[in-house]
Structures are given as structure tokens and as C-alpha cells.
Amino acid sequence: MSTHAPTSRLVTRKDFPEIRWNGHWIWVPEDKIAMGNIFGGDAVARPESHGLFRKTFEITNVPARAPARISADSRYALFVNGKEVRRGPIRSQPRRLHYDLFDLAPFLRAGVNTLAVYVKYFGKATAGWMPAVANATLGKTGVLVFEANLGERWLVSDGSWRARKSEAWSAEGYDGDASNPITGGVPTECFDARKHTPGWQTAGFDDSAWGAPQVIVSAHLGGRGRSQPPTDPYGVMLPSPLPALSGDIVRPAAIRVETIAQPLDTSNREPAWRAERSAITHRASNTQAAALPVNAGIPAHGYARIVIDMGRIVAGFVQFSLRAPAGTVFDMGYVEESIAMPSFFGAHGGSRYISRGADDSHAVFDPKGFRYAYVLMHGPAAAVTLDDFAVREHLYPWSPGAAFECSDPDLNRIHAAGIRTVNLNSWDSFIDCPTREQRSWVGDTVVHQMVHLAANTDWRLAWHFLSLGNSPRSDGILPMSVGGDVEFNGGISLPDWSLHWIHAVDNLYRYAGDRERVKEFMPNMERVLRWYAAYLTSDGVLQDVVEWNLVDWSSLFSSDRSAIVNALWARGLREFAEMAAWLGEGASRVWAEELYAMVSGAFEMFWDEARGTYVDYIKDGVQQRPINQLAGALAIVSRLAPQSRWRRIVDTITDPAKLVVRSWVQPPKGTVPPEEMARRGPQMMFGGHTPDWDVDTQIVSAEPFMSYVVHDAVAQAGAADKLPGLCARWREFLVDGYDTLGENWGAGTHVHGWSSTPTRDLMFYTLGVTPAEPGFTLARIAPRLGELAWAKGSVPTPHGLIHVDITRERVRIDSPVPVVLSLPGRELRLAAGVHSI
Questions:
Q1: Alpha carbons within 13 A on the beta-carbon side of 72
Q2: Do the bridges between strand 49-59 and strand 111-121 make them parallel or antiparallel, or are there none, so unpaired?
């Protein structure tokens, strides 16, 4: 569903031609700001805080159009006359803070109107927010800025608004990264309804007891006392390039109510921990199926537990209404699976609600991803009713038009599952999973991007993530995750994630042909490639590349002289050289081509003629025996392998008799004893991995993420007819009601966007539609059915959809651009239009 506004109401940056805002930075009066260092640099952790703001105003006539914009540090929800209008701003680095544009007029009425804004300031870095480095005043607390052009006058944030700090929300139980470096960035929300007055967003609410907000002046050397953007530390601020997120209201598929005759363990404040501990340690004395509204009784010296199954993974805002005595506590844990054992990564990201005793309706502010919700109800013995429970999904809108269907129903399900999986991971940026981390990992997102290119006619998020990721460290390498706690903490990186980012820029070049945007990214692509060049040996290959060379969760060797690391770098060099040539940057092209020639000449040292592919690595000058699919696949996609070897390599690395599934860290559930997993943890840091497969006859299969490279190699080698059969493997994820694709073979989360390669493959390689020239000015269509009887679909381009309908006897094409049609044994050049061959 597209959320594009009608053209007459579309608000753009042109509606605000001046750099300086009319609106002022404001914050609640209770958080008094002490002057800090006039040079800036105050980066200490600050407490979470919650601000409520209101502005009541009167208009005689509603204007036809009222361009408005708003931003905040950290997140806001805007209401107009009691109706939620907007949430934001989108995830970003604080010096590139974004604002949201919209038309205020449709929400106004003649007479009295009220704007109300809730601002949550996280204080501590989260998975999706990083604190600003404050100057003497700004960046030390939350802030809000707003302005709207009502025609005859401006409506702006200033000292005339009403504001108060809310004590209803708290971060109790959220310890951030200190509690769990993997999942600690997902905020926990605790809300005490007894400290909150409902209806504060409406026009009739009495705010006379509220105070006037502080107008925050930027105070630092060179600050000039401005309280209107642009100011340090947020810079000029940028308009959001993305539409508002949206989604359906989803209600439970099944509910059961359980009575527990033992006290709840409250030794840990984290609600999710309590829910997990409860499920593992306390059996129910009474269990019954239920439907909304749900009635439950809290027993004396015990508690009640409601287990809600949404029927599938959902992601968005949990909302509920209930009836319970004031002070009843509802601890909620959100998980992907029914809880049977402690979570591998630790329980996290729950929420708590303490009832008011009347008007108990609430929506959790931070989005959650889950299938099962465990609701623990404890307090005085009493009857409790859960009247409603739902999730308002909060996802990037998926624009219609692209489609795929084939003769294999399983592949159709896999294709749809890939879209659903990526959609659940498409928020204001691409994230790894909505359930566990919600971080924007720079490398993971290349697959999300390609699924958008294949199956979404709206490519704005596909390109925006390149800008978000374009945030290099001082040495040029990109953080492994951006716009959140990982980038803020500035620790180690995954260097190869920067190379996937280069591949994503290459997609921008090929699919959009956007010279200005590609040019923007060229300097940092070169810095990434130069970072690697420092590790070149006199033999012409990289060795001992530092930091976490993960590459893939599959068991592989990326240490010493690694074929895998070298080939990934070489792919980046080739792509950079081609883009430099396209832009006319001759010196950059020559530089990259010379480096590529060096590694190309040396790469033969990894070739194993007897086994028909490349080994993972060389140690102390000696080829080592382990082989991962990726060594051969990357040799093909980087073109380090001679073309004469390509088919032999593909036949070798896709031979099911040779392939085994192995992962150092996330093996299939139940395959590795707990004591072995405990041993593997230190190995990730100190080395010493020992293969538990036959390294002479077996090849380790890539996990779902890097399967995109394996499938690229298969297609590049002229074997795309194999791909429908290879994609069928993803059926293993679609069981027990799950309609999304999992992180790893047999392990990990149930909804990981990086695993959605088949959705891309079925459109790019089975239908066969890819750009033959940058920007799709010429399309290449190379349909390869494999064992399928037929396939058909529509693939997006900047010029419109290309429709393809294939059987074994004919192919029909309707294209808005000229086409090179590649069929087995022949190639045709076709004009734009409809063709049947």
C-alpha cells in the first residue's frame, strides 16, 4: 500500500526555502539545564526523560494547505485534536538529524485546535538511537522543534506552549548494553498509569497547571545564542526522504489463561526476564483456552499468566485495554517462540503496565516484534479482564505492482515469505530483526535492498540506507551497525560489512543510474578499499586483516591469507573501478584496477585442482583443507577465477552429496551440547576453531545470508536454471505457522531479512530481469525456468514495470524500455513494447 499524499497536499523542502527555522528548540521546564563546556564535548550518559507539550490556538478559516515540519531528540508522537498524525524522526546520526514534512490542514478545524506532542528522550544509546555530543546546552536533554505555515501567520514552538515532564514512563529494568551487548539496545518501557492523566492530547484538556517550556539556546563558542535550527549539535537538519510508516491492526490468533499458585520471581526488574523465568520455572495449576475479552483471577500468593499467540511474527505498537484494580502490575515479555528454555541471547525488550483502576487503555511507545506475548498479572488477589490486545504494525509501506508466480506452490510461498520478512525488517531503516536487536547492520541490509529492488516499486528506503551507512570512522571503515549504540560506542567493526555497502552502492549505479548519488559515495568507498590495501603482502594478497571478519555465520576461516576476504575485497575493487569509469574519474579507476590486477595474479595460490574449487585460507604458506561454498562463489563473482573454471566450481559447491551445515556460533538447535557452545564462545575471540566435518570430502554450506553470493555465482556461471531448485531449501522455515524466513539453517531468529535471497532470485534470475545499462535504460531479460513449467511476474524499473510470462514454449514480454533477450543458444535485441517469442 502506498502512502504518497495527493500531489495538491504534498509538502516538500521547497515549502521551507529558508535555512533558519521559525520554530524554537523547547523542552520541559522541570529538566533544568546546567551550562556545560563552551567548547562542547559533553558525551556522558544522561537519564531517560519524557516530555508532554501542548499548544492551543484558534483559526477562523482552515487553510487549503498548511505546510508543517517537526523534529525532536529522541522520538516524538504528534497529535492534532486528539488524533495521532505523525511519529519520528527517522533513525540517523545526531549531526544529521532529520525532520518530518506534512500538511497540517487536513487535521485542523475552524475554531479552537490543539497540538499535543509526546517526546521520549532515551538518554542512553539504544539499538536505534545514538546520543548527541552536547554543547553547553543543546544535546543534554530532549528537545522539540515545530513550525507550520498557516498562511496569514506561523504556528511555531516557543515559550508560549504549555509543557510538563511526565513521571508515568520510566526505563526501569533497562540497563542497555551493560546487561547484554547483543540485545541490550532494545528499550524496555514501564508505564505507571496512576501517574498519568488520560486525554491530555485533546482540545478540552485543562493544562493550566502545566508550565511554560524552556527555550533552549545553543551555547558554545561560535553559537551566537540561537534557539532556532540550524544549531550545533544537530547541524542543518535534513528532510526525511521516507514516507510515514504504517500497517494493519493485528489481533491474537489464540490465547490461553494460566493460574500460577506460586509467587512471581521479581528479583530482576526486567519484565521480559520475569516472563521468561515464569514460563521456565512455574507450571500452571489451571490452564484454559480463551478469547478476547479474557477474564482471569489473580490468586492469593500467586499470579496469573496470559499467553497470546499472534499466529505469525508481527512488529509494531502493542496496544491493549483492560480492567483491573489500581496498582495491578502487568509484566509483558515478547518472544518469537513459546518459551521452553532461556533465550540464547537473553530475555529483553519487554514492557510493564501498572493499572490506574479506570480508563486503562495504553499503547507501548517503542515498537516490538514477536509472535508470542507472555502477560504476567500480579498484585492483590482480584479479578482482571483483558478487554483487547492488538499490534498496530509500524512498517515501511510496500507499494504495489511487482509480482511473481510460478508452477511450484512452495516457491510461491517462499517468495511471499521473503517479502513479509523484509517488510518486517523495513522500518525507518533496514534492521536485522524486529524481535531481537532492531539494529541497522550495514552488511545485512544489502539483501533487504535487493528484495526492495525486485519486489517493491518504492525504492526510497533502498537508497536511503546508503546515506545512513555512509558514516565512516576516522580510518575510513564503516561501523558494523549505524545510527545506534554500536556506532556510538565506537568499538570493533565487521570490515566486510563495508564491502557489502559498496556492493549496495553498485546496485544504485546499475538499477537507478543516479550519477549524483553515486558520486556522493565515491570518496568513502575508496577509503574503505584503501583501509584493506594496508594489509597487502609482497605476494599481492591480504593477510591478517584485523577486527571481526565474520563474513557469514557458517563455519569458515577468514584468518591468515583468506581467499574469502581477498575475493570480497576484489569484488569491491572491480565495482569501484567500473563506477569510476562511468563517472569519468580516471585516476580512481586506474588505482583500483592496478590493485585488482595484483590480487588477481596472486589468487591462484588458493586453487585446489583436485577438488575443483578454492580453499578457505593459507596458513604459514600452506593450503589448508577446509572449504566453504563461499571461497569458490566469491572467486566467481569477483572474477578472480578464470571463466573456464566457473561451471566446474558451481557444480562442485552445489553438489548436495558434499555439502554440510556447520556454524561456529549458531549451529542448528539441539546439534551441539551446551558445554561445547560454552567452549566455542572464547574461540570467537582467541581462535582455535577445529572442524568437526571431513575437510577432505565435505564443503560447508553458506548460511542464508551469504547464499546471495552463492546464487550470484551460479547465475554468473550460466547455471541460473539451478536456482529454483536451490531456493526450495528455504521451505524449512515455513513450518508451525511461521510465514517468514529464519536467520540460519535450523537456528537464530524466525524473521531475518538477510535470509530473503530467493525472493530476489526468482525475479532477477528466474524471470531473468536485470539492468543491461545503468538506470535500466536497457534491460536484460534472461529467463531460466529450471524444472518449473512456467513463471510470470512484474519487475520494477525506474521507467515502470517489466512484465514477463514464460513457459517452456514461449516468452512474452511487455517492457517500457528496450530489451536484450537472452535465451539458451541465442540473444535478441527488442524495442520497448510487447513481444511474444
A1: 27
A2: antiparallel
State the residue for C-alpha cell 519484565: 271
Task: For residue range 280-314, list pLDDT tens digits in order.
Answer: 999 999 999 999 999 999 999 999 999 999 999 99
Q: Which tens digit of pLDDT belongs to each residue from 466-475? A: 999 999 999 9
CA-based nearest residue to 521, from 455, 582, 594, 441: 582
**Coil, strand or helix at 159:** coil
User: CA-to-CA distance for 79 and 88, rounded, in angstroms?
Assistant: 12
C-alpha–C-alpha distance, residues 224 and 435, integer Å: 44
Burial (CB < 10 A; 0-12, 13-18, 19+), residue 454, is: buried
Helix pair angle (445-455, 460-469), 10° resolution: 160
Beta bridge partners of 49: 121
Averaged pLDDT score across all residues of the chain: 94
Q: Which residues pair with 537 in a beta bridge?
A: none
Q: Which amino acid is at 386?
A: L
b/e code 152-165 from CB counts within 10 Å (16+ = b): eeebbbbeebbbbb
pLDDT band for position 6 (cuts 50, 70, 90): very low
Instruction: Calculate the alpha carbon distances from 757 to 409, 418, 652, 711, 764 in Å.
Output: 17, 7, 21, 8, 10
- CA gap 97, 229 in Å, rounded: 11
pLDDT digits over 781-815, tens only? 999 999 999 999 999 999 999 999 999 999 999 99
- Residue 646, all three cell numbers: 566457473
Sign (positive/negative) of CA torsion 365, 370, 372, 374? negative
- Spacing of C-alpha 824 from chain mean position: 39
Residue 179's pLDDT is what?
A: 44
| DSSP-derived secondary structure for 627-684 | -BHHHHHHHHHTT-S-GGGHHHHHHHHT-TTTEE--BSSSPPTTSS-HHHHHHHHHHH
Strands (E) in 430-526, as ranges, are 440-441, 481-482
Q: Classify residue 714 by its DSSP letter.
A: H
Q: How far is 194 from 328, CA to CA, in rounded Å?
A: 10
CA distances (Å), origin 676, targets 310, 361, 681, 695: 34, 47, 9, 20
Q: Return the DSSP state at 454.
A: H
Q: Which residue has the cell 520478512?
A: 421
DSSP 406-420: ES-HHHHHHHHHHHH
- Report pLDDT digits (tens) over 367-421: 999 999 999 999 999 999 999 999 999 999 999 999 999 999 999 999 999 999 9
- Contact partners, residue 609, CB within 8 Å, separation at least 6: none
User: What per-residue string of b and e applies to 674-689 under the rule 16 or more CB within 10 Å gives b?
Assistant: eeeeeebeeeeeeeee
